[in-house]
Amino acid sequence: MARAQRIGAAVLATVAVALTVVGVVVAATNTNPSATTKDPLALNGYPPRTADVRLTLTTKSNVAATADVAINFTNNTAAGIVQVPLPVASIAVDVRVLPHHVYLGFSNLSSILGVGWLAAPVTVPNLYGWSLELTKPDLYLITGFTKTVTYSGYSTTYTYSRPNSSVSLPNGLPFALPSSGLLSFTITTGSQGEVTGASATLASTSSATPLATLTATVLSYNAPAPVAAPPRRDVTPINSSTLRRVFGTSSISSLLGPLLGIGPVQSPRTPTTVPRGASVQ
Predict the structure, then answer these.
(1) Residues 6+ away with beta carbon under 8 Å from 224
(2) Which of 86, 74, 83 minimizes the C-alpha distance to 49?
(3) How far is 74 from 223, CA to CA, in rounded Å?
(4) C-alpha distances out from residue 227 to 55, 65, 98, 142, 260, Å
(5) pTM of the entire structure?
(6) DSSP codes, 268-281
(7) Crossing angle of helices 252-260/240-247, nearest 10°?
(8) Where are the beta strands (DSSP E) in the chain?
(9) How many CA atoms lie within 13 A of 193 on its CB side?
């Protein structure tokens, strides 16, 4: 069950932090197209219908996770496989985001709950607006940061940093972050000004060790990206009961706190409902 708790913490933290930081990074954009070299990601001024993005998240407690995510801006959906490393192996979590729900599926969940997917209601922002930002980012709107610009081939990377930046995150996150800290982020654009990558790092003012670092790399634009919900018969909602049965606790904060290094580690509980020999791998 300790292993299951680590899995739950890593998966939920990846989803929560990744969606938050990606929203902040993608919202920052640029109007300076430069274009002569052949660029496989060039959009020719048209917003992309889809994007394949690789995400890498590293937290203060040295937990790293990666995800290959396909985003469908037209249908307001996304799907990806999150790879969460463990001491002896890694777990692949299937994440699907549809307009009103997020679904999580991973190995052996059915042996614990009798179904293969967990679901939670969500409000997905208008992803079409993100596609416009990816097409022609407005970096001139970013002010109050120290900025450096570097060039490599047809790529331009803008780096922004501020030592005492005010941290403003959405309400309702299941963990606490400092109200101010060292915030740095980069945005890389291609030959026509399209976004090809970004990263963001947040550290506290008292420590140089980042609380979280997220890197996003665009692998392709406009590839097919169908996203379908799992069969209803194979889905159960995420609530205190399912959290306790799968992870040994019903508190999201107790799962995410140890992962981010901002809370005490609580002893996992052994649920009596788990069949003998069942485990999350």
Answers:
(1) 50
(2) 74
(3) 12
(4) 18, 22, 8, 33, 30
(5) 0.70
(6) PP--TTSPTT----
(7) 50
(8) 50-59, 64-72, 77-85, 90-97, 101-105, 117-121, 146-152, 155-166, 180-189, 195-203, 210-221, 235-237
(9) 19
Residues 26-59: pLDDT tens digits?
Answer: 444 334 444 444 889 999 999 999 999 999 988 7
Assign residue 261 a region: left if phi > 0, alpha if psi is -120 to 50, beta otherwise?
Answer: left
φ, ψ at 131 (rounded to 5°): -65, -35
Q: Which residues have a Cβ under 8 Å from the Cβ of 229 and sit 6 or more positions away?
A: 96, 98, 101, 103, 235
- Residue 149's identity, in one-letter code, is V
Residue 31 phi, psi (nearest 5) = -115, 25
Residues 39-73 as b/e (b if ≥16 CB within 10 A, e otherwise) read: bebbbeeebbbbbbbebbbbbbbebebbbebbbbb
Q: In whole angstroms, what is the distance from residue 213 CA to residue 201 CA? A: 4
Checking if the pLDDT of 149 tops 90, the result is: yes
Give the pLDDT confidence of 53-110 residue by residue, as tens digits: 999 988 776 667 889 999 999 999 999 998 877 655 677 889 999 999 999 888 777 7
